[in-house]
Write a structure and sequence with these properties.
Distance between the termini: 56 Å
Radius of gyration: 25 Å
Oligomer: single chain
Number of strands: 20
Protein name: phosphoribosylformylglycinamidine cyclo-ligase
Helix content: 25-40%
GO biological process, one term: adenine biosynthetic process
CATH architecture of the largest domain: Alpha-Beta Complex
Number of domains: 2
EC number: 6.3.3.1
Pathway: Purine metabolism; IMP biosynthesis via de novo pathway; 5-amino-1-(5-phospho-D-ribosyl)imidazole from N(2)-formyl-N(1)-(5-phospho-D-ribosyl)glycinamide: step 2/2
Shape: globular
Low-confidence stretches: 1-55, 64-81
Pfam family, one: AIRS_C
CATH topology of the largest domain: Phosphoribosyl-aminoimidazole Synthetase, Chain A, domain 2
Amino acid sequence: MAAAADRLLHLLRAAPASPAPAPAPSSLGRGAFSHKPRRSLRLPSLAAAGATGASGMRRVAVACSPAGAGGGGGGVGVEGDEEGMTYKGAGVDIDAGTELVRRIGRLAPAIGGFGGLFPFVLTPGDQFLVAGTDGVGTKLKLAFETGIHDTIGIDLVAMSVNDIVTSGAKPLFFLDYYATSKLDVDLAEKVIKGIVDGCQQSDCALLGGETAEMPDFYKEGEYDLSGFAVGAVKKDKVIDGKNIVEGDIIIGLPSSGVHSNGFSLARRVLEKSGLSLNDQLPRNDGMTTTVGEALMEPTVIYVKKVLEIISKGGVKGIAHITGGGFTDNIPRVFPSGLGAKIFTAAWEVPPVFRWIQEVGKIEDAEMRRTFNMGIGMVLVVSKEAADGILEGTHGPNHAYRIGEVISGEGVHYV
């Protein structure tokens, strides 16, 4: 498999009951051309490994970089050289990839073959598949700085499954992509453990993924993440906002903090504040936390709670409050000519947002279209259903009546 000028070596993420033996190299193609007398370029052989009886897929993809060389045989060699170049010398450690394969086998035993299989019966016209993809943005920068890597995978899953549940869809499965310049097995294991946790919270299968080791592409110790979720909803259960009318009630589900949006601004504020990530911030419960912990608090996965509320009936529209905040996200579910009146005193804004606003001297309007301000999911429900929904949400699952649908477009704060 080729990506731009790189040659990718794919190692299957299998899930053996015990560590699998190292795969034997097998030539997938070989050729030569004449450049100068007695000098020819030999194409590298590719090693491949397979597994049987698996229902999912995970690959470790490693890309050869022209930079660097090491001793020993293998890889790309030129006749007449005293020492041949190696993949490890080019910056790719296949042994590290194999070790990560083994560890992931413990975390997600169902992962196996080249493609992930998910049992599903789809009657044409009766159900829809709903798909979503996202990343966690520059929150990754704070993960690198704080060393908190075991929850960033929860953020990754949350950003996709929270999107697709707004259609009323139950997430079925999730795939992830993890890319780094040099594979740190311990670090990657922490990240993927968070992804496993996120899938458990959303009651969906981690069907597979890809780990790409690409020398010189990222800074040392850094990585990138993206995720992909697929869900399903019956045709007559789709939530699309078309039936929303003036007077409907807007209910908000609390966030855990900043979630995974607005971090480019939040990091600027942190720089300006002069605080370190270890300095203390208050919490709404009267306790304290560190700046780093407050910013790295994982995104709430709303799937189970939202599906429970939907089952009670009366839900007409749902908005996931991400980039764009209240101002841009809530109107996305409204028919033309309708808007929202939001009662800003209806819930307690977490202290982390007040700190961001005060230090950054940020206007209310900018805060409300950048951050979730303590409400991560918004549901538009009928008047008749509102009281029953609110009565059933107490304690950690508390929901707030934060507004109502009004005539006229846009979001109005009172």
